[in-house]
Amino acid sequence: MPDSEHTRYLLRHWREAVPQDRLAHLIRDVSRAQMRALQLRLAAHGVSFGHWTFLRILWIQDGLTQRELSDLAGVMEPTTFSAVKAMESMGFIERRQLAGNRKNMHVFLLPAGRSLEKALVPLAEEVNSVSVQGLSDRSLAIVRKCLLSMIENLAADEAASSDPQVPNVK
User: Fold this and answer.
1) What distance in Å separates the CA atoms of residue 78 and residue 99, rounded to the nearest whole number?
2) How far is CA 120 from the centre of its chain?
3) What is the mean pLDDT of each run of 10 residues along the chain (170 residues)?
């Protein structure tokens, strides 16, 4: 049984107060609960959730520019700059310019940042396992299919709009 005040509030909200509230709110609440669960686990390793986001990207593609890193993380460049600066001081990454390109600063993992992958990825896998506990494989497959369809629908709606800032009203 959940023991945090916030979790009890969320469950009461969704089960009793407004069980038919918008789906977007439910998805947001699930996402926040997963992030909190991961933050608790990451903290034991001295890594913030924000740093986790950038490390995950760099574990897949090292040597990105700070702008590319911002785009992939979905955050503004000043946020990336602050995080990169902090991760550099922690010895996880280094920033450097590539020969022939004095304009862009590229971000590279150092051995300490690379080695975190083996310690941190299992924590994220554990959070995923905890969050789907009690769901059948069939139910989980349906949830995944539905969420992917929602992403595709929203991407198509955005693409159909002449201005991505204005929703495509039909």
Assistant:
1) 25
2) 14
3) 61 61 83 93 94 96 94 93 95 90 88 96 96 95 93 90 60
Residue 93's contacts (CB-CB under 8 Å, 6 or more residues apart) are 58, 84, 87, 107, 108, 109, 110, 113
For residue 146, what pLDDT is reported? Answer: 93
pLDDT at 16: 61
Q: Shortest CA distance to 49 belongs to which of 41, 57, 39, 58? A: 39
Pairing of strands 101-109, 93-98: antiparallel
Give the pLDDT confidence score for residue 14 in this predicted structure: 58
Q: What is the pLDDT of residue 161?
A: 85
Sign of CA dihedral 123, 129, 132, 133: negative
**Cα–chain-centroid distance for residue 81?**
17
Burial class (CB in 10 A: 0-12, 13-18, 19+), 92: buried
Q: Which residues contact 29 (CB under 8 A, 6 or more apart)?
A: 10, 14
| Residue 94 pLDDT | 96
Is residue 77 a contact partner of residue 67, using CB atoms and an 8 Å limit? Answer: yes
> Which alpha helices (DSSP H) does the chain contain, by range?
5-12, 23-43, 49-60, 66-73, 77-89, 111-131, 137-160
